[in-house]
TrEMBL record:
Species, as recorded: Pendulispora brunnea
Domain called AB hydrolase-1: residue spans: 11-248
Organism taxonomic ancestry: Bacteria, Pseudomonadati, Myxococcota, Myxococcia, Myxococcales
Cited InterPro entries: AB_hydrolase_1, AB_hydrolase_fold, AB_hydrolase_sf
One Pfam family hit: Abhydrolase_6
Domain of life per record: Bacteria
Leader peptide range in chain numbering: none
Name listed for the protein in its UniProt record: Alpha/beta fold hydrolase
Record GO terms (molecular function): hydrolase activity
Keywords: Hydrolase
Amino acid sequence: MNGTTKSNNAILMIHGLCCGAEVWDRMAGAFRQLGWRVEAPTLSPHLRVKDAPSDELAKMSLKDYVDEMEGAARRLEADTGHRPIVVGHSLGGLIAQKLAERGAARAAVFMTPLAPAGVPPKLSLAPFVTLGNILFSRNLEKRPVKIWETGFKWGMLNGVPASRHKEIYATMRYCSGMVFRDLIMPDKNPERVAYVDETRINVPTLTIGAVKDRTVPVATHRLVAEKYKRVGGDYLEYSDRAHWVLDDLGTDRTVADITNWLESKQLGLA
């Protein structure tokens, strides 16, 4: 893990599909400057590499991803005496939902998140372009996968200046195809880990949606927010933003909005 501040006020940042810790550099730096301790681990970096992944990666399930991040949250709790604020983006947003359900967070922020199983899907062609090379793969659950460059730039970075696209894509890593299978066919996973029981969540939650998202449609963001509104969750939507809200032209605004939200819940820095 990477953190520079010894503080009881800790944030755990969880990255999304095919990403690593580098995607959080800007937001993590901003929160550290405000005085927060921030941990932003890369999921299984020994297996989730940028090139030539081992076949062992294909054996990882969504449960493995969630368990690994819960372990990171529990270590922060043991070190600081407090459960961390958990902030997740995309797939990391779904993992953050699971950590909130498991009682491993004292508040959770879901940024342009994947929806848990059971949330009615909103049909859109855009995600099939963004993730097409993965979604249409044969034997998906038996091999490592990595989002194709064209889809990534078109569907994830459409809110980011084109001059930065190549630099960001160069940080992408392989993921386990089994994880995608667990997301697409959640009932095939014996632990049904893609489901989230919102009635077990008793901490503040904030869902962040983006109207121009081509990876997870904004209609899905709204449904995720509606799920957690039943247990007191809040929703924030950006009309001018896309999927990559963690490092686009409006990220400073997002840092300020999350900070204000935490303060409204009396979870800001003392």
